[in-house]
Specification:
Elements lengths: L8 H11 L7 E5 H7 L2 H10 L3 E5 L2 E5 L10
Antiparallel strand pairs: 1-3, 2-3
C-alpha cells in the first residue's frame, strides 16, 4: 500500500495563489496580514522570487507582477 503524502496547508496555499488565472502574466494582490498568517512573509517572498516575478508592497497589500520581464515604475 502506497503511503499517503499530504500537502502542507502552506504548500496548498502557494499552489492555489500561483495557479490562479491572474498569475499567468497578470497581477496577484494579497493582504500582507493574510499572507503573514497563512504562510509567512519569508515563504511568500521566496515563492515569488523562485518564479522570477516582481513583488511590490502598497499599504497593506502585496502586489505580485507575474511576469519576469523588467518592470518600470513611471511615477
Amino acid at each position: 500500500m502506497e503511503p499517503i503524502i499530504r500537502q502542507s496547508s502552506a504548500d496548498y496555499w502557494v499552489d492555489q495563489v500561483f495557479a490562479a488565472r491572474q498569475a499567468r502574466g497578470g497581477v496577484v494582490r494579497r493582504a500582507v496580514p493574510w499572507v503573514e498568517r497563512e504562510i509567512g512573509r519569508d515563504r511568500f517572498v521566496q515563492e515569488v522570487r523562485a518564479r522570477g516575478f516582481h513583488l511590490l508592497r502598497a499599504g497593506d497589500q502585496f502586489i505580485v507582477i507575474c511576469d519576469p520581464r523588467p518592470v518600470q515604475i513611471l511615477f
